[in-house]
Amino acid sequence: MGRLIAVEGIDGAGKNTLVTGLVEHWRAQGLRVATFAFPRYGRTVFADVASEALHGEHGDLRESVYAMALLFALDRSATAEELRSAIAGHDVVVVDRYVASNAAYSAARLREDADGAVVRWVHDLEFGRFALPVPDRHLLLGVPAEVAMARARSRASSAPGRARDHYERDDDLQVRVDAVYRALAASGWMSPWAESVDQTPADLADVLLAPTTASTE
User: Fold this and answer.
1) Pairwise CA distance, residues 145 & 130, whole Å
2) According to its UniProt entry, what is the function of this protein (predicted)?
3) pLDDT tens column, 102-120
4) Under 8 Å between Cβ of 174 and 38
5) d(Cα 45, Cα 40) in Å, to the nearest integer?
């Protein structure tokens, strides 16, 4: 049975780059590694509808925090069996965004704290009703929000075909999401959290695979 590692952070924090580095490092050590990235745009209808809503389609759908959160949760639920199979067949499974992302963005949109009602709702929906696997470890990319947002803007300007979505364009939202993420990490939400600012994948690899005692709060 492999270990499930969830990598979290706001847009532009560098999740994809770090995940790529971790995978390369672990595979070089002979470990069997699988990766997933959420939302699974182009792979599930739930992710695609959410993306369309964030780009102005589907009327006022994106205005509902709970409706958007449900779409992202259903995206993961549709992938649950594939995820469980990967955990059973690999040493490490790394996910770029997971349930904590839904909790952080939903709480930030409602201006709630990490111990607010919507975080509990996300917990009960995704880990309870949908029975998604609980991560063995979370990794928060803790670069300053201003740095991450500048990276996201630069990335968008260098890729004209990729318009930033409603969440990505909202700097105030990104700052609030960052604050909720840090509170989730401080509380050890669902499992132990590590934080990375400028560590290399090699610096983090052993930490992420160290034995842990998971929390269920």
Assistant:
1) 31
2) Phosphorylation of dTMP to form dTDP in both de novo and salvage pathways of dTTP synthesis.
3) 999 999 999 999 999 999 9
4) no
5) 9
pLDDT tens string 161-177: 566 677 777 889 999 99
pLDDT band at 50 (very low <50, low <70, confident <90, very high): very high
Range of the domain at 42: 3-207
Do 140 and 208 form a contact (C-beta atoms < 8 A)? no
Confirm whether 215 is domain-assigned: no
Q: Is 169 exposed, middle or buried (0-12, 13-18, 19+ CB in 10 A)?
A: middle
CATH number at residue 166: 3.40.50.300
Query: Total structural domains in the chain?
Result: 1
Instruction: Give the pair of three-digit tokens for residue 154.
Output: 């630069």
